[in-house]
Amino acid sequence: MTRKKLMPVLLLAVVALTGCGQKKEVEKAHVSVENYEKLEHDVVQVEKGDLTPQIKVEVKAETFLRRSYMPVYDDMEVDKVNVAVGDHVKEGDELITFKSSELDEEIAAYQEQLGEQQLLLEHYTKLSEIDSETDYETDIENLQDSIAVCSLYIQELQAKQKSYSVIAEADGTVQSVANGLEYSTVSTNNNLITVVYGNDCFSATTSEDFNFIEGERYVGVYGAASFDLILQSVEEVGTEADGRIKKKLSFVAAEGVDVGSRETMVITFNKPQIKNALYIPTSCIYEFNEKFYIYIVDADGFLSIKEVECGDEVGTYTIILSGVSEGEWVVTQ
Questions:
Q1: How far is the C-alpha of 190 from the C-alpha of 206, rounded, in Å?
Q2: pLDDT digits (tens, 9 = 90+) for 43-74
Q3: How many C-beta neighbours within 10 Å does residue 284 have?
Q4: Strand 286-288 versus strand 291-297 pairing type
Q5: CATH code, 56-64+196-270
Q6: What DSSP designation does 245 have?
């Protein structure tokens, strides 16, 4: 509502009287009044039609973990960043790898030694097949032991090398990656990457009077994305002070639907349609002493206040049960 102030201005010119018993002419008072400016109102018409009430329920992931990763040692040189923000990752995926010249050289040395020992074992094995009079069994056993030990060292070094990498603990979604990370040197106080882990199970508690049906498919909305969810179970978990029954709703993602790592979603349930309802925007209604009022504007632009009886709210509208008629103009707040 746009209200313009009326501010009449009264200008009086007063002449002082001086001396005793002397008469002087007194100037007449002049009054100046601004032109009347009519108040302007933002108005809407009372409408009549069919409305569909809705229930909006926020569901939350039953397991949800936000995990930030830092290097295990100082002065580690990043080798490769394998993911970007928004990527879905699987358990065991290498998200970031690091360089280690020292480990690389040590592994290469053992691999070279292993290759030599394997060739030598092959040589002694062939000799034992050709020359049955010479006993090569001790040499072969020693080489086999040496190969086993060498292989074990390589496995341990490779495991150590992999432990430097950032590995996904479960299926999740990359939430953030540090800027300029690739080919930089990082320390243990640097937050490299954040991954959100969750599952495809969601739940909510509601006291809404609605016939929730197990097995029905509903749409969960997260921002601009939407996901098909199945209502798995409806469980009574208590009673509100006003007697309404509290219910726990449990949902699971429909087959083939990847919900990523969403912490919350909103599901909209449509109630039965209300036919031929009289309604106005809820913003038109004023409450005072537990009663409800609206301002009506007549054809001449004059206001009158009316008490109304309100019904259900449907979205941004309120159903009016009595006190106003279709087509009347109502002031919005």
A1: 42
A2: 999 999 999 988 899 999 988 888 899 888 88
A3: 23
A4: antiparallel
A5: 2.40.30
A6: E
For residue 136, the one-letter residue type is Y
Q: Which residues contact 269 (CB under 8 A, 6 or more apart)?
A: 54, 55, 56, 57, 208, 210, 212, 218
Query: What residue ranges do the domains of the chain occupy?
Result: 43-53+274-331, 56-64+196-270, 79-186
Residues 50 and 277: beta-carbon distance below 8 Å: yes
Reference 37, options 8, 64, 73; nearest CA is 8
Distance of CA 164 to the CA centre of its chain: 31
Question: Which residue has tokens 């009449």?
Answer: 8
CA distances from 43 to 40, 106, 280, 291 (A): 9, 81, 11, 21
- For residue 287, what are its two tokens? 């409450």
Query: Is this model's pTM higher than 0.90 or not?
Result: no
CA 22: distance to chain centroid?
87
Amino acid at 269: F
136: left (phi over 0), alpha (psi -120 to 50) or beta: alpha
Q: Residue 157 is encoded by which pair of tokens?
A: 């070094």
For 10-14, 78-82, 164-168, 322-326, which range has the lowest pLDDT when averaged over its residues?
10-14
| Token output for 302 | 């004059």
End-to-end CA distance of the chain: 6
Distance of CA 50 to the CA centre of its chain: 33
Given a contact cutoff of 8 angstroms between Cβ atoms, the answer to whether 228 and 103 are in contact is no
For the chain, what is the total number of helices (H) and then of strands (E)? 2, 22
Nearest-angstrom CA–CA distance, 8 and 6: 6
Mean pLDDT over residues 254-258, rounded? Answer: 87
Instruction: Domain 43-53+274-331: state its class.
Output: mainly beta
